[in-house]
Amino acid sequence: MKEKKKSGNGFLVQGSILAAAAIIAKVIGMLYRVPLQNILGNEGNGYYSTANEIYAILLMVSCFNMPLAVSRLVSERINRGEYRNAHRVFLCAVRFSAMLGGAIALVTYICAGFITKYMMQMELAVYGLRVLAPAIFISAILGTFRGYFQGYSTMVPTAVSQVIEQIVNAVVSLVCANIMFQYGDHLASEQGNSSLAPAWGAAGATFGTVASITVALLFMMLIYLTQAKAIRRRMRKDHTGSRESSSSIYSELIRTILPVILSTVVYNITNVLDLGVFSNILQAQGYTDKQTTTIWGIYSGQFRVLMNVPLALASSLSPSVVPSLTAAMANGDRAEARRKVGTSIRFTMLLTIPCAAGMAALAEPIITMLFTNETGTPLSVGIMQMGALMIVFYALSTLSTGILQGLGKMRQPLIHCCFALVIHLIALYLLLTVFNLNIYAVVGANIIFALIICILNALSIARFLGYRQEIYRTFVVPFIVSIIMAAAAYLVYTAFHVFSGNTLSTVVAVFAGVIVYGIGMVSFHGITPEELAMLPKGNAIIRMLRKMGLLR
């Protein structure tokens, strides 16, 4: 672990490492969800998604934000040279997470039936939720290890553990889903309930999460043990004389994490609330439980899975910018903080906007390539095309929330999320009942939700830092070039599809889109050589572009 980054752009390099790992993990996750969708079907995917959504909310309450809190507190102490206190923060966080995560895991297992039947209106998701309960306890401890290393501004252990976690998850989920689906099918023939097969299959798939998180924790513990000598050496060099008590650390942990937990829960609870509102209103409109489950399975199991790939960029840059901003604010360097805010937002938009545009342009080819839909291809395509804006706004809102937390403004994201959630629920109800938009109402309401958070977060950042967001090169140029790229990708797909299959045509069109976007951004001066140099292997990219005549 390095104590300090010499380069002011170290956070971007570390963020790129984490983003690359997150993209790999999300791609693996997306790829295994394709055969998983085929094993479970839309109904089984609805049960699987519901169990995971409940698990995600409970995870946020217990430990999801522990890496952020630990990294922030560790970074503050390292910046002051207090290595002993930094390590004490880690040890206290482990104990705190184990107690909180263990308690919530136990309550989840006991109350799983009540939650799925009465709160989510999807009773058979109970099997999957009970399987997931132990993962809450394991994840709580895993988060403290990741946060400790992130506090040292090194994202490599977290990045590698995420990739390992997703590989194990993919393999175990598919194997167990297949085994348990067959078991459920046997029960279905005995009890006359055809839904038991997809329900038990979903439970088998969730076991992959438990196995993968366990392996990731063992990996992080191994990394910690290999760093033990270096950690002790740093603590021996700590001559600050400042020693914090465990009680003061626990108190600061709670003060740091509580508003973050609440804002994250509100930010992410929308999907659970959406499911509850959507299911109840559609059933009141005459839809059966199986129909609503199938529609939700298409939305959550296809669009949201694909949406998570570009969102991984924003989600990965946020953990790297938090300790970096914390250090800048601790040193009173607001100019450096403003520069890092601008750089992180710009690079997020440079990558997210073209992803959204490309997914909208190639929605039908991508859906056809990845998923074996029973009857849902037109619906999936429509959701993805409408959801392109949702991808951009969610990416920006996620990053700007992380920026505020890195600046020490913990309450603002919570206030913004609560206000946006109220507007979101009102919009969802009106779109479902007055405009009768079905699942498109969920997409529209989420676009409104994320947009409101983006606006409120931007106003807070500007007020606190005196920051003015650059518009033209951050938003306008990427938008224009992305439209050109999307049109080019669609034309390439259409031309190739005349004499080749859908999969090959889609892959070629995606690569063509990447090339067109890269050339367009350089040609329109949307990205400078100095900015390219910030990226990993940035100088090699510059040399290649100069050989191609695209850069002077």
The gist of it:
The chain has helices spanning 10-62, 66-79, 83-119, 126-151, 156-191, 196-226, 228-236, 246-268, 270-284, 289-330, 334-361, 363-370, 377-386, 388-406, 411-433, 439-465, 472-497, 502-523, 529-534, 538-547. With 552 residues, the protein is mainly α.
Please, how many helices?
A: 20
Quaternary structure type: single chain
Q: Encode the helix/strand succession as letters.
A: HHHHHHHHHHHHHHHHHHHH
Number of strands: 0
Distinctive features:
single chain; 552 residues; mainly alpha; 20 helices; disordered N terminus
Explain what the structure shows:
The protein is mainly alpha-helical. The chain is built from 20 helices and no strands. It has helices at residues 10-62, 66-79, 83-119, 126-151, 156-191, 196-226, 228-236, 246-268, 270-284, 289-330, 334-361, 363-370, 377-386, 388-406, 411-433, 439-465, 472-497, 502-523, 529-534, 538-547. Helix 1 (10-62) packs across helix 10 (289-330) and helix 3 (83-119) packs antiparallel against helix 4 (126-151). It is globular and about 70 Å long. It starts with 9 loop residues before the first helix and ends in a 5-residue tail after the last helix. Residues 1-8 have low confidence and may be disordered.
